[in-house]
């Protein structure tokens, strides 16, 4: 299927914080230009894990994750505000602007863009057997699609950091893959592209040649249980599967190198991993 077949539809691109360093977004900008020329609307959701980890350590704290998910106490929440809504958002907008992409950086808390409630304790894959309270971490309960539609209609690309909130003024740190999946589902997106520092889901995390072009839910669950998919890739894969269940037409994990994102969007499984229902 050609890109023009998706005219008027949304592609949601999730960018990991490791991609926001100088010189790493040329391939993403290339793809965004091609998408928009084909009449596709684009929204970005970004993380900021490396930036947050660096700032956390500079403040004398130690980052803590369980099953690839960050534990967020009040001190860490302050760090996330500075790292995600500050450094990561500004660097993303500046880099994409240098490639001619008009990005509007937004926190999920802005104008109720991503509404959330505090997540109750729950068992985490890859964590202990008992339920875990991750602190100031939320679950998405709503997305202000009208704001995203307004920005797209005016020619802008919204870029959302995964800090979300509620009408009482609470702010929650949410995994960026989770936010991207919910945003894509609410927009009825044709594609959710989870862009990472690796070219897809790998059978051997150290060998890009072991990329898996296509995964079903059953295969994904087996690879997690067997310890092939580990760490931060676990929530990414789980959100990809959740995206399929929520009605997103195609969910991909792919790299950000020159041509990679564009090739994967045009020909699923050609340069990344595409998730299929069966």
UniProtKB/TrEMBL annotation:
EC number: 2.7.2.8
InterPro entries: AceGlu_kinase-like_sf, AcgluKinase_fam, ArgB, Asp/Glu/Uridylate_kinase, Glu/AcGlu_kinase
Pfam families to which the protein is assigned, alphabetical: AA_kinase
Residues that hold substrate according to the record: 48-49, 70, 173
Membrane spanning stretches: none
Main location, first listed in the record: cytoplasm
Subcellular location: Cytoplasm
CDD domains, alphabetized: AAK_NAGK-like (cd04238)
Keywords: Amino-acid biosynthesis, Arginine biosynthesis, ATP-binding, Cytoplasm, Kinase, Nucleotide-binding, Transferase
An MF annotation (GO) of this entry: acetylglutamate kinase activity
Domain Aspartate/glutamate/uridylate kinase, first and last residues per copy: 10-248
Pathway as given in its UniProt record: Amino-acid biosynthesis; L-arginine biosynthesis; N(2)-acetyl-L-ornithine from L-glutamate: step 2/4
Any one of the GO CC terms: cytoplasm
Catalytic activity: N-acetyl-L-glutamate + ATP = N-acetyl-L-glutamyl 5-phosphate + ADP
Role: Catalyzes the ATP-dependent phosphorylation of N-acetyl-L-glutamate.
Similarity annotation: Belongs to the acetylglutamate kinase family. ArgB subfamily.
Protein known as: Acetylglutamate kinase
Species this chain originates from: Vulgatibacter incomptus
Lineage: Bacteria, Pseudomonadati, Myxococcota, Myxococcia, Myxococcales
